[in-house]
Design a protein that fits this description.
Layout lengths: L6 H21 L5 E2 L1 H4 L1 E8 L5 H9 L7 E6 L2 E6 L4 H15 L2 E9 L4 H26 L2 H24 L3 E2 L1 H30 L6 H33 L2 H51 L2
Parallel strand pairs: 1-6
Antiparallel strand pairs: 2-4, 2-5, 3-4
Length: 299
C-alpha cells in the first residue's frame, strides 16, 4: 500500500474529524461539558436498608434532572453520588424521594465540594503538556533526528484534538478521569509512533537506491501488523470496560478507546508521511539556498 503517496487523503480524513470538534468548542458555551470535578458540586453517600440496584437510584436521580451525576456503588446497598451544586432544599428533597421509593436510608456523607481541578490547575496542566512536547522533541531529536520529534508531537496533538473534539461535539462529560485518559493516550500514541520511526531509521542505514517514499512505505508495512495487533488487543479490553463497566468508568474507557484508535491511525498515516513532507521541505530549502549562493558567486 502506498501510505506516503496518499498522504493528502489521510490529512483530509484527519481534518474532517478535527475541524467539527474545533468548531463545536468555538461555538458552544461552555465549550466542553465539564463535570463537577471542574465546576464543583455535592458529594452524597447513602446506605439503604433494603436491596437497591444502581439503575433504580439512577431513575430516582432522573426525576431531579440529575441523570448525568456520577453514581458509584461503594458497598452493599451503599452509593456515592457526585452531583452539580444543590441547595439544602434540593438535597433534602432528593433524600426524601429516595427514602420514599426505597425505604429507610442512612446518610453517610452530604457535603459540598469545590472544583477538584479548577482553572489554575487546568492552566498548569496545559503548561505541563507544552513542556512535555518540547522535551519529547528534544529527546526524539537526540535519539533520531529533530524532524522526527516535530512529526511525533504533531501526531500527539492530532490524537488529543480528535478525542477532545469528539467529546465536545457530542457533549460527553469531561471529568478528572478524562484528564488521566488524555495522558495515557499521549503515552500510547508516542509508543506506536516510535516503533514506526525506529523501523524507518534502521532502513535508512541500509538504504540503497530506493526513494524516501518507498523506504517509508516499506517501514510502515513492516510495522503494520504489530501496530494493528496492539490496537485490537487494547480495543477489546476497552470495549469490555465500556460495555460492562460502571457509569463512573465509561467516560474514561470511551476516551481511551477513541484515543487509542486515533493513535494507531496517526502513527501510520500521519506521523511518518508528515516526516517525509518535512524532510522534503528542508531539502528543497537547502537546495534553493545553495542555488542562490552559486548565483551570487558566479561571474
Amino acid at each position: 500500500m502506498d501510505f506516503v503517496g496518499k498522504r493528502k487523503l489521510w490529512y483530509l480524513l484527519s481534518l474532517l474529524v478535527i475541524i467539527p470538534g474545533i468548531m463545536a468548542m468555538a461555538t458552544q458555551r461552555p465549550p466542553l461539558n465539564l463535570g463537577i470535578d471542574f465546576t464543583g458540586g455535592n458529594l452524597l453517600q447513602v446506605r439503604f436498608e433494603q436491596p437497591v440496584e444502581t439503575s433504580q437510584v439512577r431513575e430516582a436521580l432522573r426525576e431531579f434532572n440529575l441523570e448525568q451525576a456520577a453514581l458509584q456503588p461503594v458497598g452493599p446497598n451503599e452509593f456515592l453520588l457526585r452531583t452539580p451544586v444543590l441547595t439544602e432544599e434540593e438535597s433534602t428533597a432528593l433524600l426524601e424521594r429516595m427514602e420514599e421509593k426505597f425505604g429507610s436510608l442512612e446518610v453517610q456523607r452530604n457535603e459540598k465540594v469545590g472544583a477538584v481541578i479548577g482553572a489554575e490547575l487546568t492552566r498548569k496542566g496545559l503548561y505541563a503538556l507544552a513542556l512535555a512536547a518540547v522535551l519529547m522533541v528534544i529527546y526524539i531529536g537526540i535519539r533520531f533526528e529533530f524532524l522526527f520529534g516535530i512529526a511525533a508531537v504533531v501526531a500527539l496533538l492530532h490524537d488529543v484534538l480528535v478525542t477532545v473534539g469528539l467529546f465536545a461535539l457530542f457533549r460527553w462529560e469531561i471529568n478528572s478521569a478524562f484528564v488521566a485518559a488524555i495522558l495515557t493516550i499521549i503515552g500510547y500514541s508516542l509508543n506506536d509512533t516510535i516503533v514506526v520511526f525506529d523501523r524507518i531509521r534502521e532502513n535508512l542505514r541500509m538504504r540503497k537506491k530506493e526513494s524516501l517514499e518507498e523506504l517509508v512505505n516499506k517501514s510502515i508495512a513492516q510495522s503494520l501488523v504489530r501496530c494493528i495487533n496492539t490496537m485490537v488487543a487494547v480495543a477489546l479490553a476497552l470495549l469490555s470496560l465500556l460495555i460492562l463497566g460502571g457509569d463512573t468508568t465509561k467516560g474514561f474507557a470511551l476516551a481511551l478507546l477513541i484515543g487509542s484508535l486515533s493513535g494507531t491511525y496517526s502513527s501510520i498515516f500521519t506521523a511518518s508521511p508528515l516526516w517525509v513532507d518535512l524532510r522534503n521541505l528542508v531539502r528543497e530549502r537547502k537546495r534553493a539556498a545553495r542555488a542562490k549562493v552559486r548565483r551570487a558567486t558566479s561571474p
